[in-house]
Amino acid sequence: MGYSSEVIHRKFRDFVGNRYDAVLKDYQEFLITEEDLVLPEYASILVPMDLYASEISENVIRLLAAYEVPVTLVYISDRYVHDVIKESLGEEAVEAYQKKKDELGDGILKKAEQAFISAGASVKIRRFIGHKGQDVEKIVVSEDIDLIAVSKKYGMAQSEDYHLSPLVARLTQHLQIPTIIY
Amino acid sequence: MIPIETLIAVVVFIISYILIIDERVHRAVAAMIGAAVVVFLGIVPWDSLLEHIDFGTIFLLMGMMIIINVASKSGLFEYIAIITAKRAKGSPLLVMVLFAIVTAVLSAFLDNVTTVLLLTPMLLYIAKVMKINPIPFLFAEILASNVGGMGTLIGDPPNIMIASSAGLSFNEFLVNMGPIAAVDMVIVLIFLFLVYGKNLKVSKDEQGVLARTLDGLDEQAAILDRTLFKKSVVVLLFVILLFFMHSSIGAILNTVLPFVSPTMTLEPAEVALIGAAIILLWSRLQPEEIFEKIEWPALFFFGGLFVLVGALVETGVISDLAQVLIGLVGTTGEAMFVIAWFSAIASAIVDNIPLTAALIPLIHDIGAAGVGIDIYPLWWALSLGACLGGNGTAIAASANVVVIGIAERENLKITFMDFMKVGMVVLFLTVAVGLGMLYLMYGF
Question: Are B385 and B156 in contact (CB under 8 A)?
């Protein structure tokens, strides 16, 4: 290091102290870093749906379609409700209930599938009876899902009034993959 | 035979000056040690010590430090940096020009270190996104900071010292130095375009991509405290307005408050301290938090320096030098020429603050000698040389040191010679044009 460099070094230390580090810290709060500019690579996306998470906004669809990877839309009917109806009202009642639920689920899935196809995404749809939380976790592991997009109302009961469904909060804690909450 | 007190005062001043330039000892400590020696030996007695310390300068710096510290907590300056980046529309050349203009304007009203400290990270970020060499941006920022600082009373420490000692108003500075700063900024921008223009070209497609990236920056996210942001803007504008009116505040107030004397004026330091009091009260921030961020070392540096120069005044060194200068020059025009070029070249080599502190009493002595030299234009010549001399070398001004220091931390090397090749050309061009304009203004 030459003399002039040493002088600049010393003067910089005396003029600025640790103010530069504080300024840098403030800037890091809102400047897009190089990592932010690189679009993360995902191979598969899962979108869990139900009666309360039946609408997906156009912006979310466009964002997910931009990754150009298969999107799996899954509609899960709650097995607990299914079993309660079966035990209390019998086989015939549960079949009627399930028929209605299937029609509803198919309608929601078809509408969402159409919207994704229109946005240029390839879509797979699935509908089954299960646990809305545990089964989503199982699909993520078994099908090697990289990204999950879930409505903040997913798994919410009609009587509940949360900003974020407790089930979604639990999913975000348990899942080890990036999650988009819309 | 030189009296021993004179010899001691000169030797202590020179040693302190060397220590200040070298910075092996903190400049505040170097100035205080030198002051301690001359006080201890009775060269500057206590009664005259307080007269030599220019409290106008110290309180003005202190008041502005408080205002800027509060304002910077709101994210105001980062907000300005993002807005400027977006306005460039992805063009590196526009980034250089717009940031140079913003730096010059901010430096005219804030201290140069704060200005470049807050803008440099943004420039480095933009250069990184654009994948171009940031050196032209950094040079533009340094040069603009020194030129812009010259334009107002509060823009650069030499101006504050000159105004405080000579009793010059904010508007006088604006009228005399503002146009020179504006013309010199145009010269700097043309010079930078000629030197770096070809390195700052990108294709239309690249420019579009860069514009989109910069548009992605959210200036609202930079605002850390929205209420404080608004209050800071209001107080800053109020303080600037008060600076414009400080020399005629009595006449203005008298129209609505008849008990106020129409001849009343406010010192610039009073304006800064009034602004500081208002922002401290209105912001509701803990005063301890703000007071501890005042750059006390800088204030003690000025205090020590005034005492050191006081020793030269007390021992008659300054008046002897004034006599020498009077012997060399016959007219005001010649004195302006000597002061402008001497202070410019000396400021490029040594620190311009001690130099200005020493030249101020010298100019007073020239005036007191009654040899027909009008000292009023000499203040502007000193401001011109002391401020623009800062562009000459890498260590000539605090803005240079800060920007080059930041560049080094980001692994960008600007050598002393690299800087001097650009800086010296700018120094000679801007001082020559500035002096020419002063001659035109004062009819020489």
Answer: no
Pairing between β-strand A179-181 and β-strand A71-78 as defined by DSSP bridges? unpaired
Residues 6+ apart with CB under 8 A from B407: B120, B124, B134, B135, B138, B413, B414
Rounded to a whole number, what is the largest CA-CA distance in chain A?
A: 93
pLDDT surpassing 90 at residue B293: no
CB of B402 within 8 A of CB of B117? yes
* B153, B380 contact by CB (below 8 A): no
CB crowding B224-259: b at 16 or more within 10 Å, else e: beeebbebbeebbeebbebbebbbbbbeebeeeeee
Across the interface, whether the CB atoms of A14 and B297 are under 8 A apart is answered yes
pTM for the whole structure: 0.77
Residues in chain B: 444
Dist. CA B246–CA B364, nearest whole Å: 24
State how far the Cα of B61 lies from the Cα of B157, in Å rounded to an integer.
8
The answer to whether B125 contacts A12, with C-beta atoms less than 8 Å apart, is: no
Six-digit token string for B43:
């060269």
Interface residue of A6, A10, A15 to substitute, partner B, most B CBs within 10 Å: A15
Where are the strands (E) in B215-321, listed by range? none
Mode of pairing for the β-strands spanning A179-181 and A147-150: parallel
**How far apart, in Å, are the Cα atoms of A123 and each of A128, A149, B294?**
17, 14, 61
Complex ipTM value:
0.87
Predicted confidence (pLDDT) at residue A94 exceeds the cutoff of 90: no
